[in-house]
Amino acid sequence: MSTKSIPTVFKDTPSTSTSLIHQPPPTGSQQRNAFYHRHAKLIQYLKGLAIRVATMVVVLGVLIGIGLGLMYTEGLPASETFSNLAFDWKVDPKSYLLPFNQSFEYNVLLDGHSHSTYSDGKMNIRQLLDWHIANGYNAVIVSDHNTVEGGLAAEKLALAEYNETIVVIPAMEYSCCRIHMNFIDINQTIPEGPPVPTDEELRQVIDQVHSLGGLVIVNHIPWSNTTEDYYQDARLPNHPSVNDLISWGVDGFEIVHQDVLDYPTLQVTQTHNLVQMTGTDVHHPSVGANVWLTVNVTKMDRQSIMQEIRNRHTSFLLDPAGTRQRSYSDSQPRSYNRLLPLTALGGYFSMFYTDYKGMYSFHGTFCHPERLIVHGDLVGWFIFWVLVGLLMFEIVRGLCLFLMDFIHRKRHINHQDYRQEIF
């Protein structure tokens, strides 16, 4: 039997090298998929980082907006309350002070300049009267900014309830960007006029006070002419000269303001026989009394005191250190503390700029040109430290994830070993 050879059938199978040569190149999507596959963890981290950075930027923006917005919002709870003030002392300045004119006899101790809540004072009229009585006064001129209403209300209260313990003389402090003057012994408010009145407008308002029977006293010239911070200009720019004021008909000057004796102006009043006035300019109960105008009257009332002042029969006591006893506001109210974590943000973020406005005009404006200065270096350092904080957060986060992964793997290995021991 012959053996026939069986033909071998060969299937065309390309070699590996041939397969690589003829394989089509990967498409763009395949390349991207391959890249994403190789860098999946890095891409996932970068996405998470972007979300965290965006969240941080949004949160910071919201906090800055809330903080600065609240800082310029009116009507928020005040940081101080004055409802429970106590003036449980009685100073007798006569027991340790002599008048400037040592032979001067007196029975009236008057404060010629004070403020209540009818303007920018912190004490209501009752508290204002009690503060003065505690500090040895038996007469006070209540002179709120650009209104006589506080003085009239205080006089009414004193006549009704204080039984001649203290005499109130109504007044108003005419306040503008050029000058502050007390209009004393009037019963109606003088229109305040423009924030920067002309010389002629000032002369007219002085004449108007005289027509009402009032006294015009120029207040605190040293305070008005001192340099306003960051402006190299007077606190009240273009303040009229003493000679101009005398020619316009003012009746006198405040020669002692708080603890400052204005000796040059004192000499002027002596030379021209003008009224010499003194005043504490008290706004807040936490200050002491420094000066008392001394007057001697036969009858303790408004008219008698004013007559002696007009006759220039006055002297004064001066205590530069001020009376020892003080009264302070109540603790911060809950309504204020409730918002403090947010309102404090305004103070923090306001470090990025300084908004200079100068002296307030008491007309809703300011006496100096506004200057807004952005502190770019502080903005840059803030961003730098935010980035440092973000880097520290990422490091701590990475360590925490690593430890969690390590603990998870350790538990998994221990679990596998335990299963092998059982089976």
What can you see in these coordinates?
By secondary structure, the protein is an alpha/beta fold. Among the domains are: 39-66; 93-318, Metal-dependent hydrolases (TIM Barrel), CATH 3.20.20. The chain is built from 12 helices and 14 strands. The strands form 3 sheets. Strands 1, 2, 3, 4, 5, 8, 9, 10, 11 and 12 form a 10-stranded mixed β-sheet that branches. A hairpin with a 2-residue loop joins β8 (252-257) and β9. α3 crosses α11. The longest helix has 47 residues, at 376-422. The model is unreliable at 1-20 (pLDDT under 50). This is Polymerase/histidinol phosphatase N-terminal domain-containing protein. One of its GO terms (molecular function) is 5'-3' RNA exonuclease activity. Keywords: Membrane, Transmembrane, Transmembrane helix. Residues 110-178 form the Polymerase/histidinol phosphatase N-terminal domain.
What's the structural blueprint in terms of helices and strands?
Elements: H1 16-22, H2 28-38, H3 40-71, E1 108-114, H4 125-134, E2 139-145, H5 149-161, E3 167-175, E4 180-184, H6 199-211, E5 215-218, H7 221-225, E6 227-228, E7 233-234, H8 242-248, E8 252-257, E9 260-261, H9 263-272, E10 275-279, E11 291-295, H10 302-310, E12 314-318, H11 334-349, E13 353-356, E14 371-374, H12 376-422
Parallel strand pairs: 1-2, 2-3, 5-8, 8-10
Antiparallel strand pairs: 1-11, 3-4, 4-5, 6-7, 8-9, 11-12, 13-14
